[in-house]
Design a protein that fits this description.
Layout lengths: L1 H39 L5 H34 L1 H5 L5 H24 L9 E2 L2 H40 L2 H17 L11 E3 L1 H5 L3 E2 L9 E3 H26 L2
Helix pairs in contact: 1-2, 1-4, 2-4, 2-5, 4-5, 5-6, 5-8
């Protein structure tokens, strides 16, 4: 456990400054940008601008955490290959520590951004309990999205460095085409492969606040067996991608 905490501290030392800078950008986007947009560019209300910018902040935080920090940290350690070859920790633990640190930072920054939802006027109307449920639901969705996209990026990163051994810089183009093909094929995947132990999300949706008198979220069913199967499959893919990367960089 101490070794894993040490890996987290290493990531904090490398990317804490970026996190602080991103926090400053988030605060500016939420509190100052809505006023400037309303005054100079747009006739819509400050409340509406802030509502939109909070959502933009969520996307910005996830994109920076994934593309710049998580993937950047992977590239940095691969370029300093000795760190990987002579580190006493397994490569699975090394990459998992990177993902965990970025996940924690993503949730913290998104939590700060979420405060902006309390100052959007009639765009969101709800009690403190409803806003708390909305917060927990939003953080769950954001964390799930972060985990899914980090896994996808890790798998295609492994594919890219493998292809780079054979075709050089052309590997980036091939990987990009593979990503487009993956997105196209994933849209045709059945939504309920293992429809067992159904859990309705209606109680959660019923306790969410109102969004500008519109229905944003629809109640759906969650299948526990399918969720556990996906979780085990994602863990398997994560370990497989890590071992693949290890095999390529240590050859």
């Amino acid at each position: 456990m101490k070794a894993f905490i040490g890996l987290l501290k290493k990531e904090r030392f490398a990317y804490l400054g970026t996190g602080i800078g991103l926090l400053g950008a988030v605060l500016i986007l939420i509190w100052l940008a809505p006023i400037a947009i309303h005054r100079y560019f747009d006739s819509t209300s400050i409340h509406h601008n802030r509502y939109v910018l909070v959502v933009v902040c969520f996307l910005l935080i996830i994109m920076v955490g994934l593309l710049y920090q998580f993937m950047g940290s992977l590239n940095r350690d691969i370029n300093k290959r000795e760190l990987w070859l002579h580190n006493q920790q397994s490569i699975v633990k090394l990459i998992f520590a990177k993902a965990v640190y970025q996940g924690i930072q993503t949730i913290l920054l998104c939590s700060v951004s979420f405060i902006g939802f309390f100052f959007v006027g009639e765009e969101i109307v709800g009690s403190m309990k409803q806003m708390l449920v909305f917060y927990m639901f939003s953080m769950y969705v954001l964390l799930a999205a972060y985990a899914l996209f980090s896994l996808i990026l890790l798998c295609f990163f492994a594919l890219n460095i493998q292809l780079n051994r054979y075709i050089g810089k052309l590997s980036g183009f091939i990987t990009f085409i593979g990503g487009i093909a993956f997105i196209s094929l994933s849209g045709d995947t059945p939504s309920h492969l293992l429809p067992f132990w159904k859990i309705s999300t209606e109680p959660i949706i019923a306790n969410l606040p109102q969004f500008n008198n519109e229905t944003i979220f629809m109640a759906q069913e969650f299948y526990l067996v399918q969720g556990l199967a996906y979780l085990l499959f994602f863990i398997f893919l994560f370990v497989l991608a890590c071992k693949w990367i290890e095999r390529v960089i240590t050859r």
